[in-house]
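Run log, item B.
One chain of 114 residues. Sequence copied directly from the ordering sheet:
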Amino acid sequence: MGTVTITVDSTEAFRQRVKAAFSGKRQAERISFESFDLLWKVLAPNRMALVQAMTGAGPISLREVARRVGRDVRAVHSDVHMLLQAGVLRKDDGGRIEFPYTAVHVEFTLKTAA
């Protein structure tokens, strides 16, 4: 796969994309979060390092991910589990994990507090 865009989107923006997809309009690959706080919680620096190490790598083992980021397998396990639950990573039939994109674009807008 190509580039995935990680965004912070309102529920309405998400609904509009789903509606467009169901009407046959091709949608770009996206991983959306409801808030900046949620994005930051899921993609904390240690987890983002995992995503970076896995970008374009194809399916790899948990041990290989840990080796690539220079961390203990047990420490990486909980971060990988969180990213799997959030839908950022995928697991193949053989149990290997994958970030199926070759590039990441992060897009969000911070506005003044109301």
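Observations after the first pass:
- The first helix runs from residue 11 to 22.
- DSSP finds five helices and five strands in the chain.
Flagged for discussion on Thursday.
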